Amino acid sequence: MIVTKNWLNEWIDLGGISTEHLLKTFNAIGLEVDRHETIRVPDGVVIGYVEQCERHPDADKLSVCQVNIGSGVRQIVCGASNVRAGIHIALATVGSELPGGLKIKAAKLRGVPSDGMICSSKEIGLPSTGEGIMILDGSIGELVLGKNLNEYPLFNDDLIEIELTANRGDCLSIRGIARDLRAALNRPLRECAKNESQERLGIGRILQLHHNETFDADLLFGAVEVKEFDVPFMIVLRLALIEGEYSTPVEAVLLYSTHSTGVILRAYPFEKFGDHDTKGIITLDTDENGYTALYGKDKVSVIGVSQEKEARFSAKEGLAIIEASYIAPDIISKKMGEKKVPSCAHYYRTSRGSEPKIDMGIAYAMRLFEKFSSSQVYGGNIELLSSYEPRIVSMSEEEIASFIGMRVDKTTITQIFKNLGMEIGKPKGSTFAISIPQFRHDIVNKQDIVEEIVRIVGIDNIPSKPLYFAEANRAGDDLNEYRKTRMYRHRAAQSGFYESVHFVFNERTQLEKYGFVCTDESKELLNPITANFDTLRPTLLMGLLNSASANVKVNQKKIALFEAGMVFDADRKESKRLGFIVSGAVQGEKVANAGKPASIDFASFVQMISDVAGSFELVSHVPSHSLAHPYVCAKVMIAGVEAGELFRVHPSVEEAFDLPQTFMCELKTDLLPYGLIQAQPYSKYQASYRDLSIVVSKETAYETIKNVIEKHVSPQVRRFYPVDRYVSEALGDQMSLTLRFVLQSEEKTLEEEDITAAMEWVLDGLKNELGVSLR
Q1: Termini Cα distance of the chain
Q2: Is residue 111 part of a domain?
Q3: 515 and 563 share a domain?
Q4: Quick one: which H or E segment has residue 563?
């Protein structure tokens, strides 16, 4: 938000307030100053009046001007295309020095003497106000010939740019900033001067408003017959300072009025609503997207969002209908979240909170039309206002003191609330009943109220106190969860993974494309930060996949990433997950692999995950999304409970993301083991190993074989695992599977008879239930 000190002075008396003190005040009350520039026109640049202007006898693009500066007439040769007789200009006299070090001297141009220079705005250190020289008018003050330009407040000013947080839409105007200063400086706010009463044609004679239902919007319509209107130089310069863009004089006035008052203003040609011999009709209705819209002969605008290009007032003169509007920011943001539509620059203000005092804004604009042109303003307004029930927040002095850490005088608190525009009901004892004004939509609870008091009192004026801890140790589940997550993050880093951190937001379209269930529409984000972050993520996998793709595009050969974070289901319930991705080479290029490392495979990836998560089992799994390869996918089972999934990325997805062979895994953090490891006794007797090679159908899953063995295994069998799988044409539809058994007893060294008996029990179980045979 850009303001100038003199522009602020139109709304609040800043007499006796230095610029340095003003900047400190802004920072103290939470309006952070991002930039400060001084506007100082050099001495010797004076006001002149062009009495005569003739073409240069020896140059087509030069003019010879006779300029009166009060003390005399100077002959000036000027090359500007807009110089002419009868205008007031800025003249740099001989001896003055302009920004950039240019010193003005008497000279001859094409043989004609020139005693000074007629200046453009850029030549005297101001922003560009258009092509050619500056043409001054009475908007800057009384034009006194020969008077230094820097004696006018407009040319001796301070530009201040304030960085506003998104919730402070009430400060997106000069008046809004002045309103906050009122509380900090304890000075009254200057209100907009009312238009002088005079006989006017009533607007009801030319215009009427139709609507069939109530709307959550405030509207006010005025009318002005625009005549002989050129944008005053004061408005031209100030709009240049705030980098405001406009294409017509009417647009300039409305843009200036909106920046000054905060009220959203638009102008329409009367012809959009009616003809000059018939009364115009404005219809308020809901459009095809559910927005509140204005209609004339056709649709002309969406309230607070956009205006149709052909419905803008683009003529130099004519009858203009001026609209002032207000719609609550939460309403318009929610609607935009449900269905986005094209918007204009006004939507930025509307969605953050524009000025609800719309009658003040339209009166301000009409006063400018009357003051600086021959335009005729119609009397009265056509209005449609909704009711507003202010929020009431009740707080006692004791509560305020406990929040702040010091007691603030009751009179001071009352004065702060009053200056901030908050009404206070009759106090009941020491309790305040605070009515929140409509323009402060960001204040909703007691903490917000205390924050307002603190920023006006000043954080530096609150005495520091030593911290005193009186609470018992509250280390509990939250701390344990933090420590658990940290442990697994460290394990992942030690196992060769690099941590990747993403937003908790994802692109809904991309997620649904690959079969993930996103947040329910009724609970979706109302105001996403970007179009690509429009939903809460249901998985860590998509963020990791995008990061891996970005790494490949910068020529990374080995990619091993992990992320620990929150995911959200359709009801926005969150849970913690640990995600992994490995793509490309299994290790870096080095002498040991002759600079040609092998690509990651399933077994290597499983080992890497095991290094982080510990012991687990893999069982067959049908993925619920299309990221996974349907034949290289498994559930991760920890202590018999499904803890996640592990898979190779589908080849089509690998191709879409420009990835080589890639594997991914996502685990539920709360199912990963954590806690004190209990030592277990171990046998002092020697372990024995036996291999069992069986012939079984290729269609038989290892999980089935494992379940049968577990039912028939003896206590001496400590563990078993597959070590070889063999298929050949001779075996046909069968395969040979070799299992290794580890046998050990707590009581003795096992003899051959014990080992044979244990193996026979296993083999008999396999034969009876699966029909296997020995190879």
Answers
A1: 83
A2: yes
A3: yes
A4: strand 558-568
**What is d(CA 512, CA 489) in angstroms, rounded to the nearest whole number?**
29
The reply to whether 417 falls in a domain is yes
Q: For the segment 388-422, what is each residue's pLDDT rounded down to a tens digit?
A: 888 898 888 888 888 888 888 888 888 898 999 88
The sign of the CA dihedral 79, 84, 85, 87 is: negative
The reply to whether 518 and 656 lie within a common domain is yes
Q: Residue 642 — φ and ψ, nearest 5°?
A: -65, 120
Cβ density class 586-622: b for 16+ within 10 Å, e for less:
beeeeeeeeeebeebebeebbebbeebbeebebeebe
pLDDT digits (tens, 9 = 90+) for 605-619: 999 999 999 999 998
Beta bridge partners of 294: 284, 301
Residue 648, classified by CB atoms within 10 Å of its CB into exposed (0-12), middle (13-18) or buried (19+), is buried
Does 196 score more than 60 pLDDT? no
| Structure tokens, 577 | 């997950």
Which pLDDT tens digit goes with each residue over 213-249? 888 889 999 999 999 899 999 999 999 999 998 999 9
CATH number at residue 170: 3.30.56.10
CA atoms of 586 and 135, how far apart (whole Å): 73
Judgement on whether residues 613 and 482 belong to the same structural domain of the protein: yes
Please report where in the chains the tokens 């043409």 appear, as a residue.
135
**280 and 362: one domain?**
yes
Is the pLDDT score of 194 beyond 80?
Answer: no
Note whether 324 and 264 are within 8 A (CB). Answer: yes
Residue type, 688: S
What lies within 8 Å, CB to CB, of 3 at 6+ separation is 159, 160, 162, 174, 177
Of 384, 403, 424, at which residue does a domain stop?
A: 384
- pLDDT at position 614 is 92
- Provide the number of structural domains found in the chain: 6
3-state secondary structure 301-321: EECCCEECHHHCCCCCCEEEE
**What six digits make up the tokens of 150?**
């820097």
Half-sphere exposure of 245 toward its Cβ, with a 13 Å CA cutoff? Answer: 3
If asked whether residues 11 and 58 sit together in one domain, one would say no
State whether 231 and 172 are in the same domain.
no
Q: What is the distance between the alpha carbons of residues 21 and 23, in angstroms, rounded to a whole number?
A: 5
pLDDT at 265: 95
- The residue among 215 and 323 whose pLDDT is bigger is 323
- Assigned domain for 91 exists: yes
In terms of domains, do 658 and 744 share one?
no
Task: Count Cβ atoms within 10 A of the Cβ of residue 542 and give its class: 0-12 exposed, 13-18 middle, 19 or more buried.
Answer: buried
In a domain, 273, yes or no: yes
> Domain range holding 61?
45-147
Q: Which residue type, as a one-letter code, is found at position 453?
A: I
User: Could you report the per-residue pLDDT of 670-706, keeping only the tens digit for each?
Assistant: 999 998 888 888 889 999 999 999 999 988 888 899 9
Looking at the fold, whether 622 and 708 belong to one and the same domain comes out as no
Structure tokens at 770: 């699966």
Q: What is the pLDDT of residues 506-552, one digit of tens each?
A: 999 999 999 999 999 899 988 888 888 999 999 999 999 999 999 99
Mean pLDDT of the 316-340 span: 90
